[in-house]
Design a protein that fits this description.
The protein is mainly alpha-helical and about 160 residues long.
Length: about 160
């Protein structure tokens, strides 16, 4: 019963972190859009400073977005009843590891193996991306010119 209580507490932690990240990402994206609209003419130093600030904010937003995706995945795993189980070997992930990294999906042993040998996960029978296709639509040799695509940058 102690593990179940710990998992419920982790669910609360994940939910609150998810809410926090959603708010922060919303504010950061709004700030980035606001900054681009209200850019005033200045010298090249001002432009460089603004550009580097935007780049840092963009990188932070990207990291937070990745964390949010991992949290969303962990919440899905909770709902399906497989949270806390290693995706590779199906062993229970220790609660101490989940407390440190609540969205971890691999046990320590499998994580170390994966970090040590880049081909280890493929050898364990992961998806073969060479077999993935959109079907035989005859579009394999189609040339796409990006300049001809319509893109909406107003958002």
């Amino acid at each position: 019963m102690a593990r179940r209580d710990a998992l419920l507490k982790l669910h609360q932690t994940l939910s609150s972190r998810r809410t926090e990240l959603r708010k922060r990402l919303g504010m950061e994206l709004a700030d980035l859009g606001h900054t681009k609209q209200n850019s005033t003419a200045g010298d090249s130093a001002d432009a460089a400073f603004d550009s580097s600030g935007e780049e840092l904010a963009s990188q932070l937003a990207e990291l937070e977005s990745r964390e949010l995706q991992q949290i969303e995945r962990a919440v899905k795993r909770l709902k399906t009843g497989v949270y806390g189980l290693c995706e590779i070997c199906s062993c229970k992930i220790p609660v101490a590891r989940l407390n440190a990294l609540p969205y971890s999906t691999l046990c320590i042993k499998c994580q170390r193996e994966m970090e040590h040998d880049a081909n280890w996960l493929q050898a364990r029978g992961s998806a073969d991306w060479n077999k993935v296709s959109d079907g035989d639509s005859g579009m394999d040799d189609r040339v796409v010119n990006l300049s001809e695509l319509e893109m909406d940058f107003s958002k």
